[in-house]
Design a protein that fits this description.
The chain is mainly α and about 80 residues long. The chain has helices at about 1-20, 30-35, 40, 50-75. It is elongated, with a radius of gyration of 16 Å.
Length: about 80
């Protein structure tokens, strides 16, 4: 069981790092160079822009990372 939680924890950790690096900053960062003109594909719908989707996935990855961290700590103490 602990091995499965460790694998999930590593997956959440790596995905959190990648998602944060893909988000654009004020200077359009790495996301601007990779996405290019893909932002215009979504139009003016703010809920479906690349940055909005990355923001949602960042929250999901962060919650998963937090939950697996707590579960691993409980498993270590038990």
């Amino acid at each position: 069981m602990q091995i499965a939680v460790n694998i999930l924890h590593i997956i959440f950790c790596i995905s959190l790092i990648v998602i944060v690096l893909l988000q654009s900053a004020k200077q359009a960062g790495l996301s601007g160079s990779i996405a290019g003109g893909a932002e215009t594909f979504f139009g003016k719908n703010k809920g479906r822009t690349i940055d909005a989707m990355l923001s949602k996935w960042t929250a999901v990855a962060a919650i998963g990372f937090l939950i697996t961290s707590i579960v691993l700590q409980i498993m270590m103490n038990a």
